[in-house]
Design a protein that fits this description.
The protein has helices spanning about 10-30, 30-40, 50-65, 80-95, 105-115. With about 120 residues, the protein is an all-alpha fold.
Length: about 120
């Protein structure tokens, strides 16, 4: 995102898409145990389902004052989703290899769309 919107700090962009990104993988059930572990690492000792990670992440983001970050505040438009997805793959393709399962550009664009506010 920051390649097209240089005023956007890279870390803020990652925070903006984090919930949608993790929701994507939780819904695929490709690594449920890891999400439960991450929820516990974030303080949810009673975590027993992957969604507990998203709840713990939301609490952390709010506590850090970044829960309200919005793409629209940086001039990003929802219809840029495919451009952002294709650019991410073209410039950071090796990171996609670390994902638990292969994704398409449309799936990645869907994550951007789901994260948009």
């Amino acid at each position: 995102m920051s390649a097209y919107h240089p005023d956007l700090p890279h870390g803020a962009g990652l925070i903006m898409i984090s919930n949608a990104y993790y929701r994507f993988w939780i819904d695929k059930h490709v690594c449920d145990d890891r999400f439960i572990d991450m929820a516990r690492f974030l303080g949810r000792a009673d975590a027993d389902k992957p969604d507990d990670f998203l709840a713990a992440l939301a609490v952390l983001q709010e506590a850090c004052g970044v829960g309200d970050l919005a793409m629209s505040d940086y001039g990003i438009k929802k219809d840029e989703a495919m451009t952002l997805a294709q650019n991410a793959r073209a410039t950071m393709g090796m990171l996609f290899e670390a994902d638990p399962k292969e994704t398409t550009d449309e799936e990645i664009a869907g994550i951007f769309r789901a994260a948009y506010k």
